[in-house]
Amino acid sequence: MADLKQTPLIYKHREANAKLVDFSGWEMPIHYGSQIEEHHIVRRDAGMFDVSHMLPVDLKGEGARDFLKKLVANNVDKLQTTGKALYSCMLHEGGGVVDDLIIYFLNESWFRIVVNAGCADKDIAWMEVQLAKHAPKLTLTPRRDLAMIAVQGPNAATKLWQAMPGMQELAGPMKPFFAVVVGDMFVARTGYTGEDGFEIMLPAKAAPFFWQALLDAGVKPCGLGARDTLRLEAGMNLYGQDMTEATTPLESGLAWTVDLKSERDFIGRSSLLHLPRSRQLVGLKLIERGVLRNHQSVFTAEGEGEITSGSFSPTLNGSIALARVPVGVNIGDTVEVEVRDKLMRALVVKYPFVRNGQPLV
Amino acid sequence: MSNIPTNLKYTKSHEWVRLETDGSVAVGITQHAQDLLGDMVFVENPVVGRQLAAGEECAVVESVKAASDVYAPVAGEVLAANADVEASPESINQDAYAAWMFTLKPANADDLDGLMDAATYAAHVESEAH
Model pTM? Predict the structure, then answer.
């Protein structure tokens, strides 16, 4: 795996006998032994993920807010309190999703945007083009000097306080979807698992020490395999699977993140207003024994659809999926999925499937 | 290096085969195969009585990561399917050589000679790694 990029934590992963794989051009741990055990640890206790492959980007300068109002589909005016975070899609003119991202509001001249690893180069190029067009005085700084560690689970907070003396005083009062700067760390109460937890950005050099402190506090390392089943149970979209440049947020269950009410003219808005909406994202729960997988065909009374993310759900001990199906398919309907060479029945359900450790379907 | 018991026979598609005293054979997937697949979550065995050709797709194991077909190592009739493994697919991860999936009555006992011994299988695993 000579050509793969590595995070500052690669030696910690090797030390822990992680199974390392190519993930969007990065050498990342898929698991450290058992993906299912790691999944349960996050639902029941506290686990941590190296997510340093994701890229924080700092947008700085006067008028940063106005630029973001043009750049992203969600309304940045929801960000009025220091540290508040906002999930949004960034669209191209046709309404397709360039990437999904989280924007943190630090002050009127500083917003931090976190983008997906696999989209980072494309996103930066896209943002640079838009900056040149709309706000040439703003600066955009990719922060490859930062590592990112996600600590997730019902005991994440307690164990984080234990690992980092002084952290509780500053990060303890923080509500979900807020961030705070703690020394040279940027601590956000966000995540991709459906559990309480934190995503912590810190200088790359400090990352292995911090990782070790978390290990010593009893936080278990978890791989990207568990991260995927956790986010699927939590009903969170994965870019490249559940949404792409060929799908709009409205077809991806993300209408709640798109602001079509205000007059704000963001990139992609007019396409979203005019495109017919014929598809929707729904949850599926397999009734029979088997495993739903990405790209399996879904047959409904309204026509054919496709699974965008399918897997085994360790919490539900069954198989679940997100699927893009024709509009008109309703919660409670039974559909058929082509699983290998068989048609199996699945129930259309509301997602998230699991939240804060509790099954919802 | 994976654990490869010398008392078993192996296939290129990573099944292990154990000859029983009554002339039947038990079939499972190797330690190496389960390691590649990761946590097992679903097993589908062939129905008892089914006649299998050598190399025929006859069972499926699915891990969290992927589905994988299991092939009949030799021609024969399915004598039994292990319901315990179907109920607890993770038993394959825990001990791949104890977790037999199904047993066959070989159509021709000599067919077993065509399977790999442990040393040959070890070399096969090694060659696939490069």
Answer: 0.95
